[in-house]
Amino acid sequence: MKKEEKTSIGKEIFEFLKVFVISAVAVLLFANFIAHPVTVVGHSMDPTLADGEYGFTSVIGAKTGKPERNKIVVVTMEDPKTGEKAEWVKRIIGMPGETIECKDDVIYIDGKAIDESSYLNPEYTAMQKEQFGCLNKYFIGNRTQDGIPIWEDWGPITLGEDEYFVMGDNRTNSKDSRDPSVGPVKESQIYGKGVFVLYPFSSFGLKLEKEGRNAFLFCFFWMRYNKKVQRMDKYDAKKRQEDKKRARRRAANVQYQLVPGPYDKGPTPNGGKFKKS
Predict the structure, then answer these.
(1) 245 vs 41, which has greater pLDDT?
(2) Cis before residue 47, ω within 30 degrees of 0?
(3) Is 90 a catalytic residue?
(4) First CA to last CA across the chain, in angstroms?
(5) Do the strands 163-167 and 85-94 form a parallel or antiparallel pair, or are they unpaired?
(6) Which of 21, 24, 32, 89 has the most neighbouring CB atoms within 10 Å?
(7) Phi and psi dihedrals of 130, rounded to 5?
(8) Higher confidence at residue 95 or residue 85?
């Protein structure tokens, strides 16, 4: 009995270790090749993404697709002094080969002013302009006048074949490609696409380009729609079966008719019999 108990305990330990190892490998594969956890630090992406929001970014999306203009991305940055790496959440503004600049607080790409109204919150940008007197200018070189930061236009900057110009949505509080110490980023630095916010629950949803739609509500209504479609499919299938049964009964009534017996004056329940027509 003792040997059997030892054997069963050994099997349980082995099964536990097997499940643990498989789970750990699955988590590592998921985090490194499918989706990676990310925490928003700072206010550079306000109000699209707020400080402290937690979620996942699509690693497989960054590895399988090319970066797109106006999309939110997670960029791996390295501190030149310490060598420490950090993940920044920014938005792609300029694409490879383009020339980007800021003149009179307006961003131009290849000489044409860009329209950012589709993803920047108009109320928030108006508040920034009122508070700082600008939106897209940058505080370069820590220069001040009477203790007040001097905001300046920047550029033109011509991007290389593998360079992307990224900026935060909170333009007056974002360290990004406008800063000479940062500059454009390479495609290899783009670690993830979009951010799916899990917490806080009030912000739950996918943030890819705009402020994001509520993925919970989307999934809820999509599930309800699918259930409705499934119910309709089941109803249609049941109705088709009933129609087939009715058709068979009608065919049977046509094939068989009630005829009078030899000694009966007419068809009766007892004297009549069925005869195939």
Answers:
(1) 41
(2) yes
(3) yes
(4) 79
(5) antiparallel
(6) 89
(7) -70, -40
(8) 95
d(CA 241, CA 202) in angstroms, rounded, equals 47
65 Cβ contact partners less than 8 Å away, ≥ 6 residues apart: 193
- Say if residue 190's pLDDT is above 50: yes
Instruction: Enter the DSSP assignment of 67.
Output: -
Beta 106-109 vs 99-103: how paired, if at all?
A: antiparallel
Of 3, 66, 90, 238, the active-site residue reads 90
Exposure string for 76-103, b = 16+ CB within 10 A, e = fewer? ebeeeeeeeeebbbbbbbbbbebebbbe
**Does the pLDDT at position 112 exceed 90?**
yes
Rounded to an integer, what distance in angstroms lies between the CA atom of residue 118 and that of residue 122? 9
H helical segments located in 73-121: none
Encoding tokens for residue 255? 């094939």
Q: Is 273 one of the catalytic residues?
A: no
pTM more than 0.70:
no
Instruction: Report the candidate in 173, 209, 192 with the shortest Cα–Cα distance to residue 69.
Output: 209
Separation between Cα atoms, residue 97 and residue 251, nearest integer Å: 75
Active-site pick, 2, 3, 23, 44: 44
Q: Which has more confidence, 222 or 47?
A: 47
